[in-house]
Amino acid sequence: MKEATDADQKWAPQLRKLKADDDLVVSAEDWADAGKDTEGVRRAGQDYLDSLPQPPKDGSPKANADWWKGLDPEQQAAWTALQPNTVGGLDGLPATARDEANRIVLDEKRGQYQTELNGIPKPPANEWTWITAGMFPSKVHTDEWMEWDKKDDAFGAHQMNTHAEGSGPQATTGAEGHSEYWNKGTTALKNQALVVVGEYGDVTAPW
After folding, report:
1. What radius of gyration do the chain's Cα atoms show?
2. Tens digit of pLDDT for each residue in 128-162?
3. 42, 75, 104, 126: which could form a disulfide with 71 (CB 3.0–4.6 Å)?
4. How many CA atoms lie within 13 A of 54 on its CB side?
């Protein structure tokens, strides 16, 4: 119990400070590392959380709200830092508390996915070349591009569409390269959001 409490007192305030500082520039790698570190803190602090009042199982919004109000500020902060998924998913809690918890989850997921995305080999600049086959020249992929394509397939990821989709108010725009995958209004951002919330069946595949 003491070790778990010490872990929470040591790491949870630092984690909250990191996520609450609007002026701090945090890279995708930082968020991915924070997510990994936080998992360790959450495991170490599980005994501490178990000692706190627990959220009602399948509770109504009122029951959830009463549970939250019964926690002191440090206990609320511990739940937010160590179990943001739980806090963010409970109807009846203050919008600010759920927003903070969900931002922690989304930032960590974004860091994780962006780091994985950055690890995908970028295509070579010289994708095409011309060869003479018979009477006419033919446009074919370069050997360098073909080798990259094999590595890309070996990455094993499920591909999602990043091109423009739809029309009217629901239309989304295309992304030009990895750096635009998180831009507001893009198909790439929409599909990544669907992955985060578990709506895999609604993710659109490339053309």
Report:
1. 23
2. 888 775 666 777 778 887 777 666 554 444 567 88
3. 75
4. 8
Please tell me what DSSP assigns to residue 59.
Answer: -
Average pLDDT over residues 94-116: 87
Per-residue b/e over 109-145, b at no fewer than 16 CB within 10 Å? bbbbbbbeeeeeeeeeeeeeeeeeeeeeeeeeeeeeb
Question: Phi/psi zone of residue 89: left (φ > 0), alpha (ψ -120 to 50 degrees), beta?
Answer: alpha
User: Could you tell me which residues come within 8 angstroms of residue 94 by beta carbon, excluding any fewer than 6 positions away?
Assistant: 68
Q: Is the dihedral of CA 163, 33, 26, 44 positive or negative?
A: positive
Alpha helices in 55-185 (DSSP H): 61-69, 73-82, 84-88, 95-118, 143-154
Residue 14 lies in a domain: yes
The answer to whether the beta carbons of residues 64 and 150 sit under 8 Å apart is no
Domain-located, residue 124: no
Please state the domain count of the chain: 1
5-14, 69-78, 117-126, 189-198: least confident range:
5-14
CA–CA distance, 78 with 45 (Å, rounded to integer):
9
